[in-house]
Amino acid sequence: MITRVLLPIWLISWIVLLPVTSVNTSVPGRSGLDKLSFGNVSTDKQGRYAAHLILAWGFTFWIWWNIKSEMQHFVGVRQRWLISPEYARSAQASTVLIRGVPQRYLSERALNVLYSHLPGGVAKVWLNRDLKEMPDLYERRLKACSVLESAETSLMNTATKLRNKKLKAQAKTRSKEKNPSLADDTPLTAPSTPGDTERNVSLAEQLVPKNKRPTHRLAAGFLPFSLPLIGKKVDSIEWARAEIAETSAALKVSRTELAKDVAKTSAEEANPGLPPAKTNHPDALKISGVAREQTYPPMNSAFVLFNRQIAAHLAAQALTHHDPYRLADRHLGVDPEDVIWGNLNMNPYEARVRLAISWGITLGLIILWAFPVAFVGAVSNIHSLCTTYSWLAWICKLPDVIVGIISGILPPVLLAVLMLLLPIVLRLLSRLEGTPTRSAIELSLMTRFFLFQVLVRNNTHMSRRLPDIGF
Amino acid sequence: MTLSSGIIAALPDLLNKPGSIPSLLAQNLPKASNFFLTYVILQGLSGAAAGFLQVIPLVLYYVKLFILGSTPRSIYTIKYTLRDVAWGTLWPGTTLLVVVTISYSVISPIINGLACATFFLFYQLYKYLFLWQFGQPASGETGGQFFPKALQHVFVGMYIQQICLAALFFLARDQNKDASAIPEGALMIVLIAFTVSANLLPLSILITN
């Protein structure tokens, strides 16, 4: 797109502006490329600025027209994508994530009734609940599974090695005995047989002696992670098997309990319409009253799956509640893997305060990032610094190669590291704001990082205060 | 010597006379134009070349296989998963070039040709990368929500260009040290007003069909 925009700008500006600023006009002290820029119009040829003015207007209108047509094109493409069968069929296309659900609507049934008037109605409501120990159990099981997987792999590796060694030793003794008829002539690449080491786990376990089995250390009491040499040493495979069995059983119990809670809040009552609010503050966000009594009480967010895609879009765009921040934060097309579950239930007021703080930090960082960048600039200029400052004189006495490395290679590397670090910090800030999805974090990073680029990079070079070190 | 000390030194002036910011910009922007000429063409030539060469991903691929390839599953993931794009950092780097180009398009028109070449190379590069190298995991799919944001960034370039041009017109002096381009400056102010309204009008209103 931008090539197409720039092509006429390029041709017209070169044809018009290059002669206007360079033919029969000169300003003392300007040479080379500077003769072709705005400042080269001499004091008696000021009428020539009309050309710049006309072109600025012309280019501006040309860019507007392009932005408008690109936007039009974008809206068309996006709508075609939204209704493309592949996307429209997916559950996420007709699901809305709603945050800031007040107490009155904090049951599957209430949300179902609330949105029942939209075309097609609601297919299912998932309230996000305070799951207490469940996420932890789930994480533990996942971790144990991956430990088991890598431990089994390494066990089989060891077994294969041991068996190959054994076979080699046997082959050697056989060749000494010169009696090939006794040989176990199954080739290693033969298709799976009962004796195949790589397929038969129990054989692998027989082959590997106890002290060569994979082990790892458990985290020592007070630490959240394990350290070498501290903590109890366990057999990885046995530990992982026991851990998986234990967490699975615990999860099963918790899930039965959760299903009971869900059944209770989604049960149809005798009278149609909204269920009566069982609390004195139906529009409050803080959970109290009956909801509190459940084992896994609902939190302030919910996923609502509609029967038709259009209902999801209507629900996402309509004003639903008369109080600020209630049912206000609605997201369409959220992929479960994209969701940051910990952020879903943040109080909207808290999220607002965090937003302000996070933008404050962002702006502060953008300004302060100039300091390390300036330091890098100083490093690249180490030659002149070590003659100016006596405490740096030792650098000048180093061999030329080292000084060369310090001033030539170090600055670009440091700068690349600085530029890599900033997006990470900015992503973290956006996450702490309570942004509900990873793609939303990327979207907010785009704005912040652009701001940084324009303010820092432009200014650094516009003010010509950093030596050019090629960034 | 450094930007930071420069800013701090200039801070009292800037705070007392916020009106001096455009003229400061206008004095400094043309001076830096040669740097940005090289910046734009450097991005186009070395950026596109490095993008086609893909050395770092190649090295990373083998490093990852060596360090992380401990189970069949992890090896499969390393070998057969397409790389995805960090949209949040790719876009700003590219829109910055657009902003720089538009800012200088009238003040230092040489940049237009260089930027045109740069963006042609980028077009070829990203066409290649998106066809053959990158994948988009379904979880990160936004349905193109980055694009309207990028179009908004273009406006930043237009503002910088217009404010600087207006300031330069107002600062222009003829042989008698009289202001010589007041009408041009005034017309630039009109253009800034137009741009603000074009920017703030919801883009959906601009789309008439």
Describe the biggest sheet of chain A? 4 strands, antiparallel
Unreliable runs of chain B, pLDDT <50, ≥5 residues?
1-9, 204-209
Q: What percent strand of chain B?
A: under 5%
What coarse outline of chain B follows from CA principal-axis ratios?
elongated
> Biggest chain pair contact, residues each?
A-B, 86 and 93 residues
The residue fraction in helices of chain A comes out at 40-55%
CA(first)-CA(last) distance of chain B? 55 Å
Tell me the radius of gyration of chain B.
Answer: 23 Å
Element-by-element helix/strand order of chain B: HHHHHHHHHH
What structural class is derived from the secondary structure elements of chain A? alpha+beta
- Indicate the multimeric state: heterodimer
Explain how this protein is built.
The complex is a heterodimer of chains A (471) and B (209). With 471 residues, chain A is of the alpha+beta class. Chain A has helices spanning 2-22, 49-83, 85-88, 108-114, 134-177, 201-207, 236-266, 309-317, 348-368, 370-380, 382-388, 393-396, 400-432, 438-462, and strands spanning 95-99, 122-129, 215-217, 233-235, 298-306, 329-332. Chain A is extended and about 90 Å long. Residues 462-471 of chain A have low confidence and may be disordered. Chain B has 209 residues and is an all-alpha fold. Chain B has ten helices and no strands. The longest helix of chain B is centred in the C-terminal third of the chain and has 26 residues, at 146-171. Mean pLDDT of chain B is 81; it is low at 1-9 and 204-209. The chains are: A alpha+beta (471), B mainly alpha (209). The interface between A and B is large, with 86 and 93 residues.
Q: In terms of topology, how is this protein built?
A:
The complex is a heterodimer of chains A (471) and B (209).
Chain A: H1 2-22, H2 49-83, H3 85-88, E1 95-99, H4 108-114, E2 122-129, H5 134-177, H6 201-207, E3 215-217, E4 233-235, H7 236-266, E5 298-306, H8 309-317, E6 329-332, H9 348-368, H10 370-380, H11 382-388, H12 393-396, H13 400-432, H14 438-462
Antiparallel strand pairs in A: 1-5, 1-6, 2-5, 3-4
Helix pairs in contact in A: 1-2, 5-6, 5-7, 9-13, 9-14, 10-13, 13-14
Chain B: H1 3-16, H2 20-31, H3 33-53, H4 55-68, H5 72-80, H6 87-104, H7 110-132, H8 146-171, H9 182-200, H10 203-206
Helix pairs in contact in B: 2-8, 3-7, 4-5, 6-8, 8-9
